[in-house]
Amino acid sequence: MSEFQSTRSEHMPETAEVSQRPWTGQPYSAPTVRAGRLVLNVDTLRLLRHQQCLSQEELADECRQRGISISVASVKRAEAGKPVIFRTARGLARFFSVTVERLFP
To answer: Where is this region: Disordered (predicted)?
Structure first.
């Protein structure tokens, strides 16, 4: 490999900087990123959804009505602990009025 070639890992940090949760002072965990997708906290997602008494289908429908583009498949994927694109994480955070970091494991 020449001096101008490098691998992606040399330029990309393994984990993001960790900040502290404002209400507890505890650090956020860095998000788990797989192939450009984020794995969200399954328990937090379910808790937030159940607090609003919504099924997965109803959540996706409410998001659509509010102009947030999230499908039922995306909701199910997130709650199954599978990676979702950042747009889905941001949309869920917006719907629940929380920060995206709040949805990280």
So the answer is: 1-29
